[in-house]
Specification:
Elements: E1 4-8, H1 15-24, E2 29-32, H2 46-49, E3 57-60, E4 63-66, H3 68-78, H4 89-115, H5 127-148, H6 161-177, H7 181-184, H8 186-195, H9 199-208
Parallel strand pairs: 1-2
Antiparallel strand pairs: 1-3, 3-4
Helix pairs in contact: 1-3, 1-6, 1-9, 4-5, 4-6, 6-8
Length: 214
Amino acid sequence: MAKIQFYYAPGACSILPHILLHETGLSFEAIEAYRFDRPSSWPEEYERINPKMEVPALVLDDQIITENIAVCTAISSLVPEKHLMGKSPMDIVRVYEWLSWLAINLHTGGFGHVFRSYRWSDDEAAHEGIKTKALERVMGIFEAVEGRLTSVHAVGGDFTAVDAYLFVFYRWGVNEFQFEMKEKYPRYTSLVETLTKREGAKAVIKAEGIEGTW
């Protein structure tokens, strides 16, 4: 079995592959690369691992994988019998459909504009307007997620990477913006409550120190 090293930042989108790694049951080394909740700096060697200076990064022996969807695919390939990216051919298609939609529209197009409005305009006076519109987009996508969910799992009636990714954004909605998630999105809330009962999610919540209410 490959030697596994995983680089993450507590509370960041790297929660997703961190949960998947715990779901594999394999041994791995988790390395905190950065913190967004207080002044922090990247380790000097991290630029060699990921010149984009982002998390997550996964190292399998001498292979370095970056970008969430690619990292999750690599992790799933280590334990194909667990179907972390979906079981049936159509379930796999739906997992990638969900992950792509969330990454482009909710992560980058929504929260990315809120957390880093300076990336989208050099005019500081424009930043608040960017944040306001981005939060409107986030709320609209949360409503769309609520409408798409038909059970406590997003795809195939069982746990997949989509559930873990949805947890990332639900948590941000509660902890960063105090959205009334339980009241507004009951199906989404049921998915998150189901996820956080899993041993993999419990282990990540403890390891990253992100206990909270959701």
